[in-house]
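Weekly sync, protein design subgroup
Attendees: M.S., D.O., the rotation student, P.L. (late)

Item 1: inverse folding check
M.S. brought a backbone from last month's batch and wanted to see whether the design step gives back something sensible before we order anything. D.O. pointed out we never logged the input encoding, so this time it goes straight into the notes. Structure tokens as presented (146 positions):
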């Protein structure tokens, strides 16, 4: 009588491994969705903070007031930085799209030539799952993500 000595796996062993992989995948997928929302919030918060800092720097270097505002009517929402005197269509204006988030609080921020904002501001963005992040500009011009 011949013995089979193939050194492979049996069909039952392969099916058990596939079942284990399926269970692990079902547990991991919901966690990945939450991570993508957090990532989306983080990326857009950094983008907003970057545009605010850009406007602040340009206000100081140009010696004139720079404005930052939000176009929430467009899809995706946009953040715009531009010299207040020339408007959002100025060649040096900066526009950035905010993908996958909703801007719930969107004040207009004017940076004076000294780099100090005309008023404190808080910008709040959120995802569809209501996770949110706040970006604040304090009275001396410090931009923080909270």
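Designed sequence read out in the meeting:
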């Amino acid at each position: 009588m011949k013995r089979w000595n193939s050194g492979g796996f049996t069909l039952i062993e392969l099916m058990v491994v596939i079942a284990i992989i399926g269970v692990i995948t079902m547990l991991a997928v919901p966690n990945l969705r939450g991570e993508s929302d957090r990532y989306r919030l983080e990326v857009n918060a950094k983008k907003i903070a970057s545009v605010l800092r850009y406007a602040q720097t340009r206000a100081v270097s140009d010696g004139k007031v720079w404005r930052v505002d939000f176009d929430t009517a467009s899809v995706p929402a946009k953040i715009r930085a531009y010299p207040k005197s020339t408007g959002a269509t100025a060649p040096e204006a900066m526009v950035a799209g905010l993908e996958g988030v909703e801007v719930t609080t969107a004040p207009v921020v004017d940076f004076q030539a000294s780099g100090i904002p005309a008023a404190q501001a808080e910008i709040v963005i959120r995802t569809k799952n209501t996770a949110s992040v706040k970006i604040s500009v304090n009275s001396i011009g410090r931009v923080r993500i909270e």
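Discussion: The chain has one domain: 33-145. The chain is about 35% helix and 25% strand.
Action: P.L. to compare against the previous round before Friday.
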